Amino acid sequence: MKRLILPAVFLLAGCSHTANDRWSGQDKAQHFIASAILTAAGSEVAQRQGSSSVRSANIGFLFSVSLGATKELWDSRPAGTGWSWKDFVWDVAGAATGYTVWRLANE
Predict the structure, then answer these.
(1) Higher per-residue pLDDT: 35 or 77
(2) How confident is the model at residue 16 (pLDDT cuts 50, 70, 90)?
(3) Cβ–Cβ contacts within 10 Å for residue 107, how many?
(4) Which of 54, 62, 64, 72 could form a Cys-Cys staple with 39, CB 3.0–4.6 A?
(5) Mind spelling out the 3-state secondary structure of 21-50?
(6) Is the pLDDT of residue 1 over 90?
(7) Which residues lie closer than 8 Å to 46 by C-beta, 6 or more apart?
(8) In this predicted model, what pLDDT tens digit does every residue of 23-60 receive, in sequence order?
(9) Integer Cα distance of 72 and 84 in angstroms
(10) What is the gyration radius of the CA atoms in the chain, in angstroms?
(11) 39 near 61, Cβ under 8 Å?
């Protein structure tokens, strides 16, 4: 997992079209909640496919964060609203929360 994070940060740091947004707002809550739900759902699907609890939670987390990064890449296109590190932070926070809640519910 660590091997994936560093290259992703370098790739995403070059986004030239960034958003000028705030840390709070309705869209930040939507990023957080959607990421938490996607993590839990991805974890549950992975577990039903036979993965261990830890592996399932990791799969769900990476699934959610990758969707958040893809959405921000879409926003960074010239016609988009711009890459938002703030949105991405809320995505990761939601994914971490979904990971934790799902793990607690499956112990």
Answers:
(1) 35
(2) low
(3) 5
(4) 64
(5) CCCCCHHHHHHHHHHHHHHHHHHHHHHHCC
(6) no
(7) 55, 56, 59, 60
(8) 888 889 999 999 999 999 999 999 999 999 999 999 99
(9) 7
(10) 14
(11) yes
For 69-85, what is the mean pLDDT? 89
Over range 54-71, report the average pLDDT: 95
Structure tokens at 63: 């699934």
Residue 55 amino acid letter: R
pTM for this prediction: 0.83
Show the DSSP H helices in the chain as ranges: 2-12, 26-48, 53-75, 85-105
Q: How far apart are CA 14 and CA 20, in angstroms?
A: 16
Tokens of 94: 């939601």
CB of 81 within 8 A of CB of 75?
yes
d(CA 82, CA 62): 22
The rounded distance, in Å, linking the Cα atoms of 79 and 6 is 28
Whether the CB-CB separation of 63 and 95 falls below 8 Å is answered with no
Nearest CA to 95 among 40, 52, 46? 40
